[in-house]
Design brief:
six-stranded parallel sheet; 238 residues; two-stranded antiparallel sheet; Rossmann fold; alpha/beta; 8 strands
């Protein structure tokens, strides 16, 4: 295997850290309302959440169904989330509107970078790697990266909407490798969503690395890091 020349990052959930996490506030309020939610239920919900947002058939169907009904979309999302937690259909239907309305009025997370992001990007750039952020966002997000003071470390940023390819579709990863002027096997892709990031990067021929600080995927069949600084040790082994 050739030594990596490029390192691509996912944005949301990998570089960008919303605190508190929406699923944590959701679960805590569900418990406050009287639902019995165990740590295992919360883990199962987190895994479902990753699967849902990985361009799943359910997500595509919901977007089409609720295209212009934002409140209805999120109420249905809450219903799905409660089902994933193991709630009965009766409880899921009863509590989904309450939880959706609560999240709409109370979820105001801090928009942060994960610890070590800036230092890691600076060091990787200094060491000669081609760096990029490749995201499933619909529109370019350069201004966000500039606001977070990390744009200047990157060689480029790519939104899925720019190439009409959403992870886990391999095409977006292949397009990123072309822009970096490297072979897919010379690029590392780091992301937090196993179903979108790891599956897609692997299918495209990149080296997939899972960023999993919460231990959502303990059985992951790929390299895993829980802090950004751990990428340096991992690169020595690749």
């Amino acid at each position: 295997m050739p030594a990596p020349k490029a390192i691509f990052y996912d944005l949301d959930g990998t570089l960008r850290n919303s605190q508190p996490a929406g699923r944590d506030l959701f679960a805590e309020h569900a418990i406050h309302l009287g639902l019995e939610i165990t740590p295992e239920d919360r883990l199962r919900s987190a895994r479902w959440e990753h699967s849902y947002w990985a361009s799943s058939a359910d997500l595509r169907a919901d977007i089409e169904r609720y295209e212009k009904e934002n409140q209805a979309f999120w109420r249905n999302y809450s219903l799905r989330q409660l089902r994933a937690m193991g709630c009965s259909e009766t409880h899921a239907s009863q509590y989904a509107p309450l939880l959706s309305d609560y999240m709409d009025s109370h979820y105001k997370p801090q928009d942060l970078l994960f610890d070590g992001v800036t230092e890691t990007l600076a060091s990787l750039r200094e060491n000669g790697y081609v760096l990029a952020v490749v995201s499933n966002r619909d529109k370019p997000f350069h201004e966000y990266l500039r606001e977070k003071a990390i744009l200047h470390y990157l060689h480029f940023a790519l939104a899925a909407g720019e190439v009409s390819s959403w992870k886990p579709d391999p095409e977006i990863f292949i397009q990123a490798a072309r822009r970096a002027d490297v072979s897919p096997c010379e690029a590392v892709y780091i992301g937090d969503n196993y179903y979108a990031d790891i599956v897609g990067a692997r299918q495209a021929g990149l080296i997939p690395v899972l960023f999993d600080p919460a231990g959502v995927f303990p059985e992951a069949d790929c390299p895993v890091i829980q802090t950004h600084a751990q990428i340096f040790e991992l690169l020595e082994r690749i």
